[in-house]
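Pasting two entries for a bug report.
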Amino acid sequence: MNNYQTPLRDISFTLFELFDYANHYRALGHASLDRELTNAFINEAARFAEEVLAPLGPVGDRQGCKLIDGRVVTPTGFKEAYQHYCVTGWPSISRSVAYGGQGLPQSLSIFLSEILGTPNWAWSMYAGLSQGAMHTIETHGTAQQKQQYLPALISGRWTGTMCLTEAHAGSDLGLLRTRAEPRLDGSYHISGTKIFISSGDHDLAENIVHIVLARLPDAPAGTKGISLFIVPKFLDGAEGTPTVANAVTCVSLEEKMGIHGNATCELHFEGARGWLLGEVNKGLNHMFTFMNLARIGSGLQGLAHAELGYQQSSLYARERLQMRSLTGIKNPDEQADPIIVHPDIRRMLFTQKSLVEGIRMLSYYTNIKMDLSQHAADPLERQHAADLLGLLTPIVKAFGTEAGFESANLALQCLGGHGYIRGWGLEQNLRDCRIATLYEGTTGIQALDLLGRKVLGTGGKTLLLLIAEITAFCDSCDGNEQLAIQAAQLATLSQEWQELSLHIAQQAQQDPDQIGAAAVDYLMYSGYLVLAFLWLKARKTALQQLASPDAEPGFYRAKLATAEFYFARILPRTTGLVAAIKSGSGNLMGLASDDF
C-alpha cells in the first residue's frame, strides 16, 4: 500500500470546521496552537507517514520479527524509521515540559497517532505504548520516578510496555500470579510470566520500561490485591547508564494472524528488580490510566484500517472495468464500465465512507472530553468531561474496532478475488485489523463496562449527560427543513436509548444474566446512535459551509450525501438490535453447556 495518502481534507474538516479545535485549544491556554500551527504538525506527520512508514508496511508483514539469542530483531527499516521519529520530536508532543516534553494537549498526540499509524499500525505500536507508559508514570509516579524515567521515555530513547495478561487468567486479572517480593532497599523482586505483550522486546530503543501488574505476598485475593510496578529491561550500571540486564527475558514470539511487524512477546520475569508505582494494592486502578488511553488508541486502529481499506477499494472501483451499468453505458470508449457505477459496489463504498468518517468524528469528539477532563479551568467542567469520557471510551474502543473491521472487510470484498491476494494489500489490512476487537478488553468486556459500570452502575447519570447534549443539538435544528427530519429521528432514538437502559435495569433485577445478554447489542446500538449525532452535526456544518462563496461544493455535497446514506441505511440497524436486546437472556441460557 505504498500509495497511501493522508486524508488531510477530512481531518481538517473534522478538526476545525466541525469541532473548532482552534478555539478549543485557546480555551485550554494554548492560543499558539492555532489552525496554522496544528496543520504544520499534521502535514509533517503526513509526509513521514507517506514517505517513510507506508513503504515499510508490507515489509513488516512479510519479514515479521525474529527472536535471535534472546533478543528481538525488528523488520528492515523499522529501526531507522523510529530514529527519525525521535529526532523529529514526535514522542514529546503531549508530555510534561518539566521532563523534556512540549506540553501540548493529549488530543494533538492522538490525531498524529492516527496519521502515523494508518499506513503501518505494527510499527506505530512501539511508539504508542510508550505514550501510555509515560502517562501512567506522570500520573502515579513519585518525583524520583518521574525524574528517572520520563526524560528518556519522552525523548524516545526508551520505550514502554503494559504487562497485564497471564496464560491462565486472560481478561480475569484477579487470577494473576506474578509475585512481587519486597527487598531491603525498597525495590521488589518480580517473578512470573506475562503473555501477549505488544512491543515487549525489540531493537529500536536503548531500554524498555515495563509497567507490570503483580501481587505482594500478603495481598488480598482477587483484583483488590494487585499492585503496579516499574520493571526496566536494563538497570543502571557503574556509569549510571542502563547497561546491566535485568532478569526479564523474552522467551518466545507469538505466531500471529497479523501485525507481524510488531513483536508480541511472552516475557518471563525471574526475580527481576522492580519498583512500586503508586499505592500498594491499587495497581488495577492505576493501570486503568494506561489502559483507557490504550483503548482510545485501539479505536484509532479501527479507524486506521477502515481508512486504508477505503482508499484502496475506492481507487480500485474507479479503475476496474466490469459489465455495463443497467441504466445505460457510462464508459463508451471501453468494453465495460467501471464497477463504481454498480449499486452494490456503491453500497459497500458508502458504508465504508460513512464508518471511516464517522469513527474519525467519534474519536475527535472524545478527545475534546479528554482534554477538558485534564485541563478545564472549572472543576465542575473537568468532572462533567471526565464522566462523558468514561461513557465514550468503551464505545470508541469496541464500536470503533467492530465498525473498522466491517469496513476493512468490505474493502476486500469490493476487489473480489483480487482483494484476497497480496497485490493490493487488503488481505494484510484485514488480518492486521482483526486484533483490534480483542486486545485492551474484547468487545464483550467493553460492552459490560459500558452497560454495567458506566450506565447502570451510575444509575444512568452519565448516559443522561450525553443524551442532554444530543437533545440540545436536535432542538437547535428546529425550523431547518434540511435537518428537521433527521433531528427528529435522532431525538426519538435518544429517548429510546434511555428507555432501553431502564428496561435492561428492570429485567436484571430478576435475572442478572440480562446484562451480559444485552451488553454487546447495547454497545453497538449506542455506537450507531452517537455516530448519528455526529453525522447530523456534520450535515449542519456542511450546509453552513456550502453557503460560503469560497466553499468546495464537491466536498460538502459528499458530506451531505454520506450523512443521508448513514441515516437511511446504517442507522436502521438499531431496530434489529433493540429486538435482540428485548428478547432477553432465555434464548442464550436455555441450552445446557454440554449440548454445544
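Entry 2 (this is the one that rendered wrong in the viewer):
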Amino acid sequence: MDVILSIVVPTRNRRVLLADAIASIAPLAVLGAVEVIVADDGSTDGTGQFIESHPMSDSQSEGIRLLYSGTEERRGAQAARNRGVSLARGRSVMFLDSDDVLIADGIAALVNRLETDSTLDFVHGKIVRTDSQLRPIAGEDTIGRAYDPKDSEIAGYHWPIMGVVYRREYLGKVGPWNEALSGAQDWEYQARVKLAGGRGQFIDTLVGCWRQHDGERVGTKTFREDYVRSVILACDSILRAAQKVGRCDEGLEKRLAKILVVHALELGNCGFHAARDQCFNQAANCLSTKSALRTTIKCWSFLPASSDGWCRKILLLITQSKKSYRSAARAASSDPAMPLATPTGVVGPQPCADPVEGQSAPSPIRLSVIIPCRDRVDLLRECIQSVVCQKLPGVEILVCDDGSTEDLTGLQEFFGNGINPVLWSSTPSSHGAPAARNRGVALARGQAVLFLDSDDVLTAPGPALLLRALEEDPQLDFTYGKVLITDDQLRPLPGALPVGEAYTAAPVEIGGYHFHTMGAMYRKSFLAKVGPWNEALTGSQDWEYQARVKLAGGRGRFIDTFMGYWRQHGGNRVGTKTFRLDYVRSVLLACATILQAAQQAGRCDRDLERRLAKKILLHALEYGANGYRPERNAAFRQASCTLSQSFLLRHLVRLLALTPLTLDHFLWRRFQRSGTEGSGQ
C-alpha cells in the first residue's frame, strides 16, 4: 500500500488527550492512505490496549491506519519520535504531540503542496495556542511564518512540532532527534532542518492547536533546572552544527549568546551559581568575532547573583519590545493599509466586535456556529459579521469552505481575532453543503451548535434567547425560533410569512417544515442521535435533517423570537421559476429517507404517508411537465408505494399515472395552488 503520510505521535500516559489527537487526524482520510504511528514511551494507563482496540487499528482499515509501538522503559519523547520515523512508510512525515490536535484541512494543504512540487523538502504552516480545553488564548499570536535564509534565522522559531510536513528521505539528512535533550528539542531539530540544505516553503494556513499547560513553560511561572540545562545544550548543538557547515555568522552567534545570558541569569536567580558561571562562560565563547561583547559578558558574570533577577527581567522586556515591534512591522509591510498599532490585529473597522464589558479572559465555548460556504465572499463577510454583532461570549465560528475558487484570505485576516474566534476549514474540491456541515460538527467544541448558511444573517436577540433556554433547562435537546424571508437586499418579501412555529407530536408533523436551518439550536450531544447530514442530497437537506431531529426522541421548545433573515435568490427554488433535475431527485430521495426512518421508529401512520405521497405526486407532475417521462413514472410508483395504509388512494395514484403528459403541467399548477408545501421547505 502506497502511504502518502506518516504521522508520528509520541505519548506517555495521555490516553484521554490521545483520543482527541486521533479524532483530529480522522478527516485526513481524504488524502488517501495515512498511517498514524503511536510511539508509546512506557505508558501505564492502558494506552496500548486503547490503540489496539481502536477501529482504525484494523488491518483492513482503509484511509487512516493506526499502528502501535511501545516500550516498557521510559526513554523520552525524542527516542519515541526516532522510533516512529524508523517505522514510517509514508512519502511524507510529520510529528504530532499527543496532547495537541490537528486542523485537517491545513495539513492536507501542506501535503498537497509537497506532492505537487518535487523540489520542496518540507512545507510549514501556522498553529494557534490554546488552553487545556482547546480555547484560543487571548492576546497570543499564531506561531508560524516564513524565514529569511540568512544564518541568524537558523536559531529562530518559525514553526512548532506539528506545523511542518517533511519529505521522508529528507529526514535522513537532518538526522535523528537529539535524545540528550529534555527541552527545546523541536527548536534544536528545526535548526538542523534549516542547516541540512533542503528547500522549504511557508503556507499561510492554520494546521493545528497547541495546548498550553500551566506551569510547563520555562522562564515564566515555573523554573525547571533540567529544562534550562537542556536549552543550554541545544544552543551548543546548534552552534557546532552551524560551524560544521560554514553557516555561523555574527548574527547567529549574538542570538545564541543572548539566549545563554538569559538562562545564566535565570540559573543565578534560582541559586545555581556554578551552573550560572558555566553558562556565562559558554555565552562568551559563542562570540568568536565580537571581542568587546565577549568581554562585557565575562565582566557581567562577576556581578553578584542577587542582581540576576532584575537584570533578567530588563533583558526580557527589551527583547519582547523589539519582537513586538518587528511583528507589527511585518504585518504592516504585508498590508500597507493596515495601521501599525491595531489593538486586535484586525484590518479595517469592526464596529460590532467590541469586547463585552468586564470580560478579561475567553469564556468556555458555549456555542459553535457552523457556516458552510463556497465563494460568496461578500455575503460570507456579512454572515460572519452578523454572528460577531450578537456580542455573545463563548461563541466560536467555524467557516467550512467547500472548495471555494474565490480568495478568502482577506476574510480570514479580517476575522482573525476579536470576541468570537473564527476557525477556517477548507477542502480543495467541492463535496456539498451537507459534507461541510458534517465537517463543522466534527470540529465543533461548543456545548450547543447552530447551522448558518453563508448567504443568511442572524439578528438579535434570537440566538441569545435560544442559547439561554438551552442552558437553563438541561432537559431540552434543541430550541427553535422564526426567520424572516427576504430578498437579495434583506428586504422582507411582501406577503411572505415568517418560517418557524410549534408543532405537535403527531406523526404527520414529522413531514412538516417547522424551523429553518438557522432557526434551530441543538445541544451537541443530541446531534449524535440525529446522525450526520445526508451527503447524498443536493436539495431539501434541512427538511430531511429536521425530520430526523423529530424522530430522534429529543425534547424541543419553540421560542417566539426572530433568529435572522433568510435570503431568497431568484430562480433557485425548485417548483417555482426554475426546474432543476438534481434538486427534484434529491427531494424524492429525502421523502424515501424520511418514510423509512419513521417506519423504523414506529412513527409512521396514514397521515404521514399521505403527506409524503402528496409531495412526491407534485414532483411526478413536475417531471412530466418538463418532459422527463421515465422519472415521472418512477415518481408515481414511489407515491403509490408510500401509501401502504390507504388502499383506495394508492389505486387512484396508479390511475393518475396513466394520464397523458400533456395534462401534467395543468395538474401541477393546480396542485401548487391547492396549498401543497414546496419541495422540502
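Dev reply: Rendering is fixed now. As a check, the viewer should reflect this: The radius of gyration is 30 Å.
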